[in-house]
From TrEMBL:
Binding locations of heme: C340
Protein family per UniProt: Belongs to the cytochrome P450 family.
Organism placement in taxonomy: Eukaryota, Metazoa, Ecdysozoa, Arthropoda, Chelicerata
Cofactor or coenzyme needed: heme
InterPro entries xref list: Cyt_P450, Cyt_P450_CS, Cyt_P450_E_grp-I, Cyt_P450_sf, Cytochrome_P450_fam2
GO CC, any one term: cytoplasm
Highest taxon above the source species: Eukaryota
Keywords, in A-Z order: Heme, Iron, Metal-binding, Monooxygenase, Oxidoreductase
Source species of the chain: Dinothrombium tinctorium
N-terminal signal peptide: none
Pfam families xref list: p450 (PF00067)
This protein's name: Cytochrome P450 2J6-like protein
GO molecular function, one term: oxidoreductase activity, acting on paired donors, with incorporation or reduction of molecular oxygen, reduced flavin or flavoprotein as one donor, and incorporation of one atom of oxygen
GO biological-process terms attached to the record: organic acid metabolic process; xenobiotic metabolic process
SUPFAM superfamilies: Cytochrome P450
């Protein structure tokens, strides 16, 4: 867990520790499993959302299009379905407002991430009234009121069936009250902050990874051709890609894995704290030491990944290209008890978005564009140059 820094003040699952974290994590896992994580129902919901995205691409008539902007509402609508039980239409005023709120929150978190590591920076920013911190607080507050409204609507509906995370949380609170049980860590405030946490943890990471994948695929036409060939052989053109197709598509999976390694959207993990004295690889770590895992150094370690700066999906394939190699050092979703709660959702999204776009289109950079792969580090590593791409029909 974190020290006294900025993110801790948010009090959501990503930054909690001890019994509160354990209780909330177990609960989230159970709810997501019951809602169909990794199953057909989730797959269908993601496919519906992808349908809207493909319509937008189609409307654009092969003109250069900023996929970063288009992916924002699409990917975050998947979290809306999970937490609120519904998506927002692209023209819905709340969707439009969230599209502005999210990137700005991300931008502001870039600066406040310093305060995540250095608690005194956070305190100083509060004390001297940093304007960025004030704006961040106000945007997070606005975001929270959108979540609060959703909770109110759920309460008024008083549904018996559980369709989403809010339903499940309200039911848990209701049952504990009815049975006069200890409320534990369940409260409205926890519901609001966990919901916000899922949006922040689950929208930017997936969207940024897709940004990178699309840029990389435009930059490597040979790789793109192999993906097209595999899609044509396994899926064809007459039906949409399905999650189960991945089992017959090692090359496409290797491209996604290599993109996750190469771009490493979470280069530095959320700071955690050693709960006890411990020793790792002979190094003594005293209790309460803050530990930040550096995923970037693992994914770009040349003793593990030869020529780490080269984008090469083959590294994850057997010599004959038919099988995927399991490389245990590739851990974009982290490892162990705190590993990403949304891993299965994210993997499904990455595979279905990527294959659905590639099935229909060729991805190119617009003519005359000076392509840059430079990145900037906020809470995620994202391309400085957004993926403005020419998306051309294949047939
Ligand atoms: C490509 C997409 C994603 C990547 C690369 C990613 C990566 C990560 C990483 C590295 C962590 C930190 C784990 C640790 O501290 O050891 C994490 C935690 C978390 N992620 Fe993700 N994530 C992704 C998508 C998602 C999605 C879609 C959700 C939505 C449900 C989500 C929800 C969470 C939550 C709630 C945590 C905190 C878990 C805990 O502290 O117990 N993530 N993620």
């Amino acid at each position: 867990m974190l020290g006294e820094g900025f993110l801790l003040k948010q009090r959501n699952l990503t930054v909690e520790s001890g019994h509160i974290w354990r209780e909330q994590r177990r609960f989230a896992f159970r709810v997501f499993r019951d809602l169909g994580f990794g199953k057909q129902v989730m797959e269908e919901s993601i496919k519906d959302e992808i349908g809207y995205l493909l319509n937008e691409i189609e409307k654009n008539n092969e003109n250069p299009i900023n996929m970063h902007e288009l992916l924002m509402p699409s990917v975050s609508n998947n979290i809306c379905s999970l937490i609120f039980g519904h998506r927002y239409d692209y023209n819905d005023p709340i969707r439009k407002r969230l599209n502005i709120l999210f990137p700005r929150i991300l931008e502001l978190l870039e600066v406040s991430s310093v305060s995540t590591f250095l608690p005194f920076v956070y305190k100083a920013m509060q004390l001297f009234g940093s304007s960025r911190m004030t704006e961040l607080m106000s945007l997070l507050h606005e975001f929270e009121s959108i979540v609060e409204k959703e909770v109110e609507i759920h309460q008024k509906d008083a549904r018996n069936d559980v369709n989403d995370y809010i339903d499940a949380f309200l039911r848990e609170m209701h049952e504990r009250e009815k049975l006069n049980k200890d409320m534990g860590s369940f409260s409205f405030q926890r519901l609001y902050s966990n919901s916000k946490g899922f949006f922040i943890a689950g929208s930017f990471t997936t969207r940024n990874t897709l940004d990178w994948i699309l840029k990389l695929i435009a930059a490597y036409p040979d790789v793109q051709k192999c993906v097209h060939d595999e899609i044509d052989a396994v899926i064809g053109h007459n039906r949409l890609p399905a999650w189960s197709d991945r089992q017959l598509m090692p090359y496409t999976q290797a491209v996604i894995m290599e993109s996750q390694r190469w771009c490493c959207v979470v280069p530095l993990n959320i700071p955690r704290r050693a709960m006890n004295d411990t020793t790792i690889s002979g190094k003594f770590i005293p209790k309460d030491t803050e530990i930040v895992v550096n995923f970037w150094s693992v994914f770009h370690d040349e003793t593990i990944f030869e020529n780490p700066d080269t984008f090469d999906p083959q590294r994850f394939l057997s010599n004959d290209g038919r099988e995927l190699k399991k490389v245990e050092e590739l851990i974009p979703f982290s490892y162990g008890k705190r590993a990403c709660v949304g891993e299965i959702l994210a993997k499904m999204e990455l595979f279905l978005y990527f294959t659905s776009i590639m099935q229909k289109y060729k991805i190119l950079f617009p003519e005359g564009v000076q392509v840059s792969f430079e990145s900037t580090l906020g809470i995620n590593l994202q391309p400085i140059q957004e993926p403005v791409l020419k998306i051309v029909n294949r047939y």
